[in-house]
Amino acid sequence: MVDVISLLPVKHKRNSSGWITFNAVCCHHRGENQDRKQRGGFKSSDEGWYYACFNCGYTASFVLGRSLTFKARQFLTWMGVDFKLIEEINLESLRHRTIHGLLETTKQTVPNVEFAERDLPVGLELIDDANSRHTVYIEYLSSRSLDHTAYPYMVSPDADGRLANRIVIPFTHQGMLVGNTARFLDTRTPKYISDMQQGYVFGADLQRESWHHLFVVEGIFDALSIDAVAVLHNDINSKQIQLIKNLGKTVTVIPDQDLAGMKLVERAIELGWAVSMPDWPNGIKDVNDAVITMGRLATILIILQSRETNKYKIEIQRKKLVKRLRA
């Protein structure tokens, strides 16, 4: 495969989370001032690459085995890659599709869920532990037992008003940016402001083919705590059900242990999915609380030990929990 990293500007740097930063190539093409603060970010993997501008918000992505999207072609053009090489990259990607892969695609009976590509909010910076202005955000993530280098968390320390004091978490689907949520660290409400498309499930891109189990949770920090997927509310709509089924794994739903979370249990029973309602220690309401208190491994083990597949037993557990919550 063509090494896109070799095409990046000579002046660039790589941070501890694997992002390569350089002067963004998109801003002046989009009517913004030319970037001179190395606010363009590029990250690659065996499956493809992702570009994000933390100045004007432009994003582009590429997944190996698929055609180059318009924005991926646009990004490569702005990087100075000629048309012929762009077509070579596209053809090489398509050749990567094996006969087996094509057969698997043909056999798929559940239709794919599609989302529109979105740009990031403008003026963001990728969290960097070398930047003292980012310390408060890193400390917040640490307080929730989250590694700030394990996901591309973004911040805007220079922003004013409601755009300040927030951590922005990008939403991706099959390597493409499709939205985001901002978690505010102050006491004002709402705590979250999101750009979320209907049917989106956070964390699908975190799943690995070798994993057999899929944990379904409600909140985004719950998902980030144990590499689960989050439906981001206390119900699961039809598009989310379709997307989760497309992942082809054994599903276990882990509801928040409050009255609102019981709606998620009812939906899981309808779908024939397993449910885990652990007898958490006092003060623990959700998965992230459990990870903070007991650690990630202990939390996952308890979830698996408490997993129930019999719908009648799940309903009995749900009623017991509701009774306790109302007491």
Write the layout of secondary structure elements.
Elements: E1 13-14, E2 20-22, E3 40-45, E4 48-53, E5 59-63, H1 70-78, H2 83-95, H3 99-107, E6 125-126, H4 135-143, E7 154-155, E8 166-173, E9 176-184, E10 192-195, E11 213-217, H5 220-226, E12 229-230, H6 238-246, E13 250-253, H7 262-271, E14 274-276, H8 287-294, H9 296-305, E15 307-308, H10 311-326
Parallel strand pairs: 11-12, 11-13, 13-14
Antiparallel strand pairs: 1-2, 2-3, 3-4, 4-5, 6-7, 7-8, 8-9, 9-10, 14-15
Helix pairs in contact: 5-8, 7-10, 8-9
Strand order of the largest sheet: 1-2-3-4-5
CATH topology of the largest domain: Dna Topoisomerase Vi A Subunit, Chain: A, domain 2
- Sequence of secondary-structure elements: EEEEEHHHEHEEEEEHEHEHEHHEH
The number of helices is 10
- The multimeric state of the shown protein is single chain
Average pLDDT: 88
Q: Beta-sheet strand percentage?
A: 15-25%
CATH class of the largest domain: Alpha Beta
Tell me how many strands there are. Answer: 15
Quickly give the CATH architecture of the largest domain: 3-Layer(aba) Sandwich
Q: Could you name the ranges where pLDDT drops below 50 across 5 or more consecutive residues? A: 102-110
What percent of the residues sit in helical stretches (DSSP H or I)? 25-40%
The separation of the N and C termini measures 61 Å
Structural class: alpha+beta
Described by the principal axes of the CA atoms, the overall outline is globular
Radius of gyration: 21 Å
Number of domains: 2
Q: Characterize the largest beta sheet: strand count, sense, and whether it forms a barrel.
A: 5 strands, antiparallel
